[in-house]
Amino acid sequence: MKKLFLIPLSVFAILMFACAGETEVVEVTKEVVVEKPTTVEVVKEVPVMTEKVVEVEKEVVKEVEVEKKYKPLVIYSGRKESLVGPIIQAFTDATRIPVEVKYGKTGEMAATLMEEGDKTPADIFYAQDPGGLGSVEDMFAVLPSSITSKVPDWADSPNQKWTGITGRARVVVYNTDAITDPATQLPDNLYDFIDPKWKGKIGWPPTNSSFQAMVTGLRLVWGEEKTKTWLEGIIDNDVKVYAKNTPTVEAAGAGEIEVGFVNHYYLHRFLKAETESFAARNYFLPSGGPGSVVLVAGAGILEASDNKEAAERFMEFMLSTTAQAYFANEIYEYPLVEGVNKSYLLPDLSTLNTPDIDISDLGDVEATQKLLQDVGALP
Amino acid sequence: MIKNKFVNKNYLWLSSISTLIALVVSIPLLYLLFRAVSHDGFIELIFRERIFWITLKSISLVISVTFFSIVISFFLAQFLTKSDVPFKKLLTILCCLPIVIPSYVYGMVFVHLLGPRGKVFQILNSWNLIDSFPDLYGFWGATITLTFLSYPYVFLPLRAAMISLDDSFEDASRSLGRGRIKTFYYVTLPLLLPAMRSGGLLVALYTLSDFGAVALLRYQTFTWAIMNMYNGAYNRISAAALSLVLVFFAILILSMESYLKGARNFFSSSSTSSSSSLIQLDNKKWIIFLLILLVPIIGALIPIIGLLTWLIKGIIYGDVIDFNFSTIFTSLKVSFLAAISTMIISLPISFFAVKYKNKFSLLIEKISYIGFGLPSIVVGLSLVYFSINFLFPIYQTTAVLIFGYSVLFLPVGVSAIKSTLVQLNPNLEDASRGLGYGYIKTFIKVTVPLLMPSILAGSLLIFLLTMKELPLTLVLSPLNFKSLPTSIWAYASEAFFASAALPALILILLSGPASAYLVLKKNNIDVRG
To answer: Do the chains contact at A108 and B377, CB–CB below 8 Å?
Structure first.
């Protein structure tokens, strides 16, 4: 009989144990404050100019006081920690604003936001692509023009609800054993891949949102009929269906396919992991058009956020030269802010002949889904 | 008269607790109904030719994976319990290992090594041994992957059932003149059927809900269509509508399972089961040994080798391998808590289902299984909706995450307890009560100790499943939450293979001892008393 108490007791214990994790936030703030004196010490070590040292010290003290009041900024990130973790850390280091992040797939994070509605704890949603941002556009607050004016007009939403942070080009990844001279062996535009000579040699990831954004681009530039003909042509060429970009690029490298339609930066991860021997390279379609549309990863501030000031500082930081240079050099994406250079491994954005499309129009996935279903690319 | 009153009181208690649990675990189902109702083109979305075809693909995969899982498990369990094959214990432990391998990791490594242009082909081709490799993409690739990942769901209960199988039944049958085959068909098989059924059910539902492996092996199933709705179309309403169809299939599978009539209850009267001598394999010993070894080689060794090559290559090329040690502790903590809390809520459901066999208890039991047949992202989102609206103070705490795991893995706990509970000789409990113990005291002093092995086995299984669960973890976890599966995913999906390999190997390494315990412990206790 005595042991019967064990059941509610253990349930209680579980809850206690489970809730114990939640006190961590407090600890984080403490840590930050403790770290401060070291900064002061470093300054003190400089023996010259005593006056200035005092000034700096005062500033530091002030900062510590302010910092205690900072609420942690909550970010839902559809971009992986392996990509954005370091730059989010840099934001905290620079501003002393603590950050709490929830990582997930863009689609699943968007769905989570929709389920949460007004009650969402999130201040910022950082998404992989315009479709993800567009899907929760109603939940975003209008961004100040000081933020949106930093990126070119095509790269943010017309109603200023979200902005692109980096650019990612659509390319054709090809196997270097099969295609030794891409300039002559590959067509100069996307449409010509419906030629039967490509039968069995093409791969694509049709459920991928960047791929679907590209198809939206095709619809906008080519029109419904031509896009449909193209999709049907590619399917008639026995296109191989992959789960997402990464396996498509891997398949191109392994020679499973000769060409694949993907985003440009995945290749660079493989080149890093497998060295130059990885047998695939990117082909930027010379005649450009909708096949080389540039998509963005971007972010918006949630209307329900009660931490908008910190959120705006985050957006500004992401569009600062520091962050943009990080994206360009570490993960090979295109910076969107003027004055920051792209990686030397990439062709210049202006040479891509990208179609004149506003990025937010690419977020209209519904009609694209319908078309992809009609032709049988999607169930 | 008095006894009746007691029985009714117990029934009332047990049925109300079970009903409450069933209500909680049907949150995903209610959520789907609620979401799908708001979908305008529900009929147009569902009744399309392409949906028909992927449905057919899903069903054929479920059938083939379940079939092969049972065949492999039967082969393994038969020789590992009833023959003198060498290194039996080691083999048994190895045969449990595949269950700890996440399906997305397996799919990735499988394609990397055994794809039509995978590493195996490349190496053999460079030695001029072959110039083509079988294309394992599609149906057969998906079947192989999922079979070798999920057969332990059948193997574990089947093995336990074979160990506790009282040979006196078979001996009696044979002494009454039935031949070996007839004895097997009329006596042995009915005794093993409950284990095969409960394991097979989990395999079938798991196959229905898996996304990682089927997508990577380029086999488009129903779950693939649902994931497209979330990640491509950003349309959670259509995703819900499609998921509702999946619920329908889960119900179909569940009712088929009840239709397959099992054994009438046989209870052994002797205190120890007698086991006759082992099958002598003689000179075929090593052939069987190698055949058995092949199973864990495909199921566990291949992914481990693949991960090791990624890791070593990363180290050689001087990659910076990020690893956060706190992820290990986090994973162990949540998995441990999930195992305990799931087992606690499994107990009333399984007791209700076994002790009071009626339509209502059967319904409650079936409801507890439905979550397992859904992609775990669906379960996760339904609990996001539920907990932010009704449990707001604890939203995004570990408590809600544990709650989510419990909803998802409840059927694993229920099937573990149930499989022993049905074999439990009720005379033991009657004797206890006859000797003056009350119902509660009997439960604690007699029933629970007798069930302990299966409670432990169930907990460990849930522990292992939680260790590798990803989609539910991502949506329900607290902010800044980092565990082993989230690290694997964060790196692997962006093609940072070396950094993904380390947490994956640690995950397998940590889960290994748990599965060893699962095997060794169960041996020692005879659950039927």
So the answer is: yes
